Amino acid sequence: MGYPANYRYTKEHEWIELDGNRAKVGITDHAQSELGDVVFVELPAVGTAFNRGDTLGTVESVKAVSDVFAPIAGKIVEVNSELESSPETINSDPHGAGWLVVIEISDPSESNSLLDVAAYEKLIAEE
Amino acid sequence: MRTIFDYQKSSGTGGILPKLDVPKCGTTDLLPRELIRRSEPRIPNLSEPEVVRHYTALSKLNYGVDDGFYPLGSCTMKYNPKVNEDVAGLPGFSSVHPATDPELAQGSLSVVYEMSRLLAGIAGMADVTLQPAAGAHGEVTGMFLIKRYFEARGETQRTRILLPDSAHGTNPASAATAGFSVTEIRSGADGLVDLNALSGELDDTVAGMMLTVPNTLGIFEENIVKITAMVHAAGGLCYFDGANLNAFLGHARPGDMGADVFHFNLHKTMSSPHGGGGPGSGPVAVSEVLVPFLPVPRVKLDGEHYVLDWEEPQSIGSMQSFYGNFGVFLKAYAYILTLGDEGLHEAGENAVLNANYLQERLKKTYKLPYDRLCKHEFVLTGKGVAEGISTLDIAKRLIDYGFHPPTIYFPLIVHEALMIEPTETESKETLDRFTEALEKIASEAREDPQLLHDAPHTAPTRRLDQTRAARYPIMTYPFGE
Fold first, then answer.
1. pLDDT for B107-149, tens place per residue?
2. How far does Cα B184 stand from its chain's mean position?
3. Is the CB of B466 less than 8 angstroms away from the CB of A63?
4. Sequence ranges of the domains in chain B
5. Which residues does B472 contact at the CB level (< 8 Å), separation at least 6?
6. Would residue A45 count as lying in a domain?
7. Which value does ipTM take for this structure?
8. Nearest-neighbour CA in chain B from A88: distance (Å)
């Protein structure tokens, strides 16, 4: 599976689709394949605010429970409630229908430190 | 596989009752109307032989340490000597009711008292509570003790617990349950706590640090004395997770390394049977400063009499009804007294020797990400054995060779982890057979990968669908639905 060139990425294997002051966040194909079958997703309530690096939710697979970190500071404006009943969407379509949350960004300059697709692909090649 | 509810209603019943020889009276004469059920209870109605055969059949599907090698990392599945069962089964112990007047239970109380003294000696610490019923219960007890200590000192701003990423999985949960927030400290490339990362986090909001010693990679924290001194200098306390005590049993004492709290897993280190959730016992040893906060009742020696003391004004209260899992204390007490100082020392030594022997043999076939002298256990990776083969496949194939698989996918810092803890009770022959099985599996993985994907082949059930079990768990029995 390819990594969309218009997305940004983090070292913690999240992708971010920036749209104005909004950021849609999910976990990457690499992350879902390392985790294995996802069986449960816990997401924050709409309206919750996070600092960058805070744990905003958890993804539980047959192998492990992993925290999802806020890639950028802001307030949650949307969560993907479909994942509650069909967590497997994260495995089948990690970069699309398997998105987790939409964050309203509080400090746009923070997005500068996110990785671009080339940097992310280099990172996973080294792992 | 049938459950006891799946049997057809039996023709007979469990027993034949004798003729009634007292005046007959109805349930309505004995109980208030609203407490009388109107439908039959949904319990199996089977005869004695049917019940016995059902459970005997189930017991034959089981695999335990009495069947064979059980190298479950982090679990210390050592053999449980049967003499300990004899001791725990003595009627003077097994028939005593926990509410018996202490005057009439002096023998049992003396075991509780002596056991705390023995454990305090092994830990090199001031005192011990035997109340916690398991390891994680000991952890949360220790966290409550630390919390109460800082409350008593008026340092309520200490709300953080530091935890290395190589700690036991239950540690962060125990800290959070006691109301602390958790800060993770990354391990360095050597698998040890990164001292710079630690020093960057130490301030007056830190209540303490929880350490698993040795850590889940089976590596001893070489800087342990430095680490505890750093935490103490910042005003915090040090918690040691004692699940891995087998690695230094009789050789070193947590108290001498600077621990303020240390929990034992009697069901691991002191050889009482465990698995499947219990029964466990997680006594907690503490340094001098935490003694006033220990759970009540405390068993004390007043002259020549053992008494239950509830009068400890600063105590955190009771951590469980009565005094803990007494049957487990007895087995562990028998074990400690049987082995003595010398025996415990030797047990620790052989646990480490066995682990290093296996590590050296297996690292020729499987990658060993942290390649150094290990303690009681080590972590290999299933990655790189063959394309498309996962650690799960390897673990399942081990079942076909008659071994219980090791712990897999933990610790998280090793990808595709295989965490192996042989313990001291295994012979060289067993370790060699296990090595040969894993070597054979590695060549099967290259030559016939499907054999591994389909494993186990010889177990009572084939590969279970663990994804489906986790996504759609059925937690109740569907009676006639």
1. 999 999 999 999 999 999 999 999 999 999 999 999 999 999 9
2. 23
3. no
4. 83-338, 342-469
5. none
6. yes
7. 0.77
8. 9
